[in-house]
C-alpha cells in the first residue's frame, strides 16, 4: 500500500472519531436522513432517465446509495470509490452491476475512470474530508461526459461562535475552566468540518470546469447541496 493511501487512512480514522467501526455504523444510521425525499427529488430532477447510465459515488461509505440505485435501475453501471477499510468492510451483498474501487480521492490517478465515461456522480459529505478538492474536480471534469452531472452535498462554514456554543453548551467562556485537550480537539474539528463557504465551493467548481445549476441550503444553512453540469 502506498504511504499516501496509508496516511490518508490514518487521517480519516482520527477525523471519524478514532473508532472506524462506530463511524461506519453512524454512516449506516444517518443514510436515510442524508438521502431523504428531498435528496431523491433533487437527484432525479437532473439525472438522465435512460437505463444504461454510468453513475459513480465518491466516498461511497457502505455503498447504501449505490445499492438503492441498483435496485431502481438494474441497467445502470455503478461504481463506488472508497478508501476507509471499516467502510469497505460494510459493503456486502454487492449487486451484479456495482463495482467498488479503492482510491485516494485527494489525488486519484487519471486511470481510475476512462475519459468522458460517467453520466452522473455524487459526492455526499466527502469534500470536507479531502485535504483539497482541486485534483478531484479536475479529474471529474475529464471523467464526466460533457453536460453530465455532479451532485455535491457538504457542510459549509458556520460561525465559530455557533460551533463553540453547540460543543460546549452552558459554558461561560470568560470564566469556566475548560480542558486544553477538549479545546484543542474542538478547534481541530471545527476547521476540518468547516473548510469552505458555499460561495467558495461554487467558485471552486466553476474554476475547475463545472457550471453550477442549482444550490439548496440544508440544516439551516450549515450544509449545501449543489448540482453542477460538466462543461
Ligand atoms: C461522511 S462519509 C459519507 C459516506 C457516504 N457518502 C454517505 O453519504 O453515506 C465520507 C466518506 O468519504 C470517504 N473518504 C474520505 N476521504 C476519502 C479519500 N481521500 N478517498 C476516498 N474516500 C474518502 C470516507 O472514508 C467516508 O466513507
From TrEMBL:
<dbReference type="InterPro" id="IPR013216">
    <property type="entry name" value="Methyltransf_11"/>
</dbReference>
<dbReference type="InterPro" id="IPR029063">
    <property type="entry name" value="SAM-dependent_MTases_sf"/>
</dbReference>
<feature type="compositionally biased region" description="Basic and acidic residues">
    <location>
        <begin position="16"/>
        <end position="25"/>
    </location>
</feature>
<keyword id="KW-0808">Transferase</keyword>
<protein>
    <submittedName>
        <fullName>Methyltransferase domain-containing protein</fullName>
    </submittedName>
</protein>
<dbReference type="GO" id="GO:0008757">
    <property type="term" value="F:S-adenosylmethionine-dependent methyltransferase activity"/>
</dbReference>
<feature type="domain" description="Methyltransferase type 11">
    <location>
        <begin position="57"/>
        <end position="152"/>
    </location>
</feature>
<feature type="region of interest" description="Disordered">
    <location>
        <begin position="1"/>
        <end position="30"/>
    </location>
</feature>
<keyword id="KW-0489">Methyltransferase</keyword>
<dbReference type="Pfam" id="PF08241">
    <property type="entry name" value="Methyltransf_11"/>
</dbReference>
<dbReference type="GO" id="GO:0032259">
    <property type="term" value="P:methylation"/>
</dbReference>
Amino acid at each position: 500500500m502506498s504511504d499516501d493511501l496509508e496516511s490518508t487512512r490514518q487521517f480519516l480514522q482520527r477525523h471519524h472519531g478514532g473508532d472506524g467501526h462506530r463511524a461506519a455504523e453512524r454512516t449506516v444510521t444517518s443514510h436515510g436522513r442524508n438521502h431523504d425525499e428531498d435528496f431523491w427529488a433533487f437527484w432525479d430532477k437532473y439525472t438522465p432517465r435512460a437505463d444504461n447510465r454510468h453513475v459513480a459515488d465518491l466516498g461511497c461509505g457502505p455503498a447504501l446509495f449505490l445499492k438503492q440505485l441498483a435496485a431502481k435501475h438494474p441497467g445502470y453501471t455503478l461504481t463506488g470509490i472508497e478508501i476507509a477499510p471499516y467502510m469497505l468492510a460494510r459493503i456486502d451483498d454487492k449487486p451484479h452491476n456495482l463495482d467498488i474501487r479503492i482510491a485516494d480521492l485527494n489525488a486519484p490517478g487519471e486511470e481510475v475512470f476512462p475519459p468522458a465515461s460517467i453520466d452522473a456522480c455524487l459526492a455526499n459529505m466527502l469534500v470536507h474530508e479531502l485535504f483539497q478538492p482541486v485534483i478531484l474536480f479536475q479529474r471529474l471534469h475529464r471523467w464526466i461526459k460533457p453536460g453530465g452531472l455532479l451532485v455535491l452535498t457538504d457542510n459549509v462554514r458556520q460561525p465559530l461562535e455557533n460551533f463553540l456554543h453547540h460543543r460546549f453548551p452552558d459554558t461561560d467562556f470568560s470564566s469556566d475552566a475548560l480542558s486544553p485537550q477538549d479545546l484543542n480537539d474542538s478547534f481541530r474539528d471545527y476547521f476540518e468540518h468547516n473548510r469552505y463557504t458555499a460561495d467558495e465551493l461554487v467558485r471552486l467548481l466553476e474554476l475547475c470546469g463545472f457550471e453550477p445549476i442549482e444550490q439548496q441550503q440544508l440544516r439551516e444553512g450549515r450544509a449545501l447541496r449543489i448540482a453542477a453540469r460538466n462543461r
